[in-house]
Every structure is written in C-alpha cells, then in structure tokens.
C-alpha cells in the first residue's frame, strides 16, 4: 500500500506493507458489510439519524395525528412529511411506521440568500473484534469504524432539489468509498492499526462550510479528513462546489471568465504569486498552479475574492493537507465574464 510521505521534503510517497492481526486469515464479514451499507444509505433518507439498529421510528396509533406525533418528538410536521415522503398529513393509517426525522443541528438564514440547513450523518460501527497495534498487540477495546459527515441542504430556490441532490450524492459517494475500503481491509487483515487515536484507526470526518450564499449563487467547501488502516497518519483535503441557483447546476472555473481573454495564464500568475508567500510551498507551485484550467477546479466564490484550493503535495509541502489562497477579484479585472457571477458579487 502506498501513502503520501508525511515528513519528507519532496513529493515522495512511502510504501508500507499492510498490517496483519496475528493469526488472522482472510474471510468475508457479511454482517459488517451490511452495517456499512446501511450507514452509507442513510444519506438518502435525509434528514434522519442512523444508530446501529436503524433509524428511530414510531408506529401510528388510533387517534394519532401527525401534529401530535411531531410535537411528541420536538419536530415539525414538515420535517416528518419530508422524512417519510408524505403528501397529505391528514392521511395517516393506524399501524403505519414513520421514520423520526433527525433534529436539525443548525438552521442558518442568509440575508438575500437561501435557507441553509445543516444535517449530520453519524455512524459508529462496532466490528466485533479486538483492535491491534503495529506491534501485533491489542490496543484496548473492540475496533470501531466511525463516520461523521455534516453536510447541508438549501430551501427556497426553485432549483434547490438539484443542488441538494448533488450534495447528497457527493456525501454518499465519499461514505461508500471509505466504508468499502475499510471493510475490505478488515476482512483481509483484521482490525490492524499503524496509527490510532483512542484505540481507533478507521474514521471519516467531513464538514461543509458556506463560503457564499446569495439569491443567485451558492459556494461551499468541504473539509474531508480520514484515517485509513495501515496509514502513518490522517489525511486532509478540501473539496469545493459552486452552484448557479437559477439552474441548480455546478459552475465550472471557465464560467467565471471571458473566453475571449487569456484568463488561464493570468489566473495562474496570480495564484503562483500568492502561493509564493505561503511558508509550505516550493517550486512545485509552478506546475500545480501552472497555466492549465484543470489546476483550478477547486475554487470558491467569497465576498472578498476567489479562493483557490490545491490538492495535497501539488504546490509544495510534505503533508497531506490541501493549501488554499485567495485572489482578490480586482487582481483579474478585465478577465471576468461580464455576465458571469463575479461582477454580480463585486
């Protein structure tokens, strides 16, 4: 297995053999895989909590109304309707099982923009076997696979379902990929840790942050951290998405600029200049932020400028963290598309 070198001076990688729990033989773990699949699918049932035994539910009793049930759980009727796909709150059936919606962790009203709702996907999967360290000795307690993702959805714009669908799809894809990898590792090698925190070495954390929210545009960034079995340390990176709320579709970096201008070299020069002021960059910035549009796909619009994020090791550094810089909009005056997002923001 190959991992980024966390402590070297160049863009090298460190190849380490996978760890193996002493005496472990490769086997299938269908119950563990089923729990992982339930965790990943929870993003589809938004917004609900997913404990190990499934989402909390309530059975409709004679005389129950949706309003009474919602009040009982400190939720709203609208939240119950969304979580259960109910069109008419007056048409409940006795014996009907309803999912209790996840209590919104935070609701943010943005002046002139959409309502932002933050949702949590939390899974703690007990692998039902002891966790072992790199010396082949137990490190205390049973192994656990953890997932914590705080993502967001919006309400208000007509095309909000398209935005929410893409964000939910990204969350689920990340959860599926992570859980698939760690379950494969456990099946092949047991719960073996090279680096652990509190006796745990398999976790995924993500948190979405709103960088800009207006009537016309939504720009969010997602900070992703994960610790994989056998890795010498956790890895972190930043993802970015910007949406045109009139269409619900993502905006590409080229949509910001006038195609009749040489905007790619200009953007590259501005990025390289600012990267040169960062302590952890080196000559790799001339390649990682070179004049190719593909180098600038991770961007965010903000009130103060264009934020560019670069994947780990592409512009310098020796760790596994994304580096971001801000290019003030005025730096690229004359290159922005006249009918694009930037003139409306600035």
UniProtKB/TrEMBL annotation:
Pfam families: LysM. Transmembrane segments: none annotated. Signal peptide: none annotated. Residues 56-100 form the LysM domain. This is LysM domain-containing protein. The lineage of its organism: unclassified sequences, metagenomes, ecological metagenomes.
């Amino acid at each position: 297995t190959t991992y980024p070198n966390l402590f070297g001076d160049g863009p090298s990688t460190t190849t380490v053999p996978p760890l193996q729990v002493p005496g472990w033989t490769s086997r299938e773990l269908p119950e563990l895989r089923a729990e992982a699949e339930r965790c990943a699918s929870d993003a589809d049932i938004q917004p609900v909590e997913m404990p190990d035994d499934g989402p909390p539910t309530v059975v409709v009793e004679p005389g129950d109304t949706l309003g009474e049930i919602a009040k009982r759980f400190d939720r709203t009727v609208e939240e119950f309707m969304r979580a259960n796909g109910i069109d008419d709150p007056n048409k409940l059936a006795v014996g009907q099982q309803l999912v209790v919606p996840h209590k919104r962790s935070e609701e943010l009203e943005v002046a002139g923009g959409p309502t932002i709702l933050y949702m949590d996907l939390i899974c703690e999967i007990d692998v039902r076997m002891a966790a072992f360290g790199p010396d082949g000795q137990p490190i205390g307690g049973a192994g656990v696979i953890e997932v914590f993702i705080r993502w967001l959805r919006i309400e208000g714009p007509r095309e909000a379902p398209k935005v929410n669908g893409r964000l939910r799809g990204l969350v689920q894809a990340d959860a599926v990929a992570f859980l698939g990898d760690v379950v494969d590792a456990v099946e092949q090698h047991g719960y073996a840790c090279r680096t652990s925190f509190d006796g745990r070495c398999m976790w995924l954390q993500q948190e979405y942050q709103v960088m800009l929210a207006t009537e016309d545009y939504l720009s969010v960034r997602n900070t992703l951290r994960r610790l994989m079995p056998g890795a010498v340390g956790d890895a972190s990176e930043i993802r970015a998405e910007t949406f045109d709320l009139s269409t619900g579709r993502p905006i590409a970096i080229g949509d910001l600029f006038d195609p009749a201008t040489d905007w790619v070299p200009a953007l590259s020069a501005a990025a390289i200049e600012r990267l040169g002021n960062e302590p952890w960059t080196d000559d790799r910035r001339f390649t990682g932020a070179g004049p190719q549009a593909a180098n600038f796909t991770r961007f965010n619009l903000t009130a103060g400028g264009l934020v560019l994020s670069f994947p780990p090791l592409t512009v310098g550094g020796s760790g596994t963290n994304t580096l971001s810089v801000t290019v003030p909009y005025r730096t690229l005056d004359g290159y922005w598309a006249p009918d694009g997002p930037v003139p409306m923001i600035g």
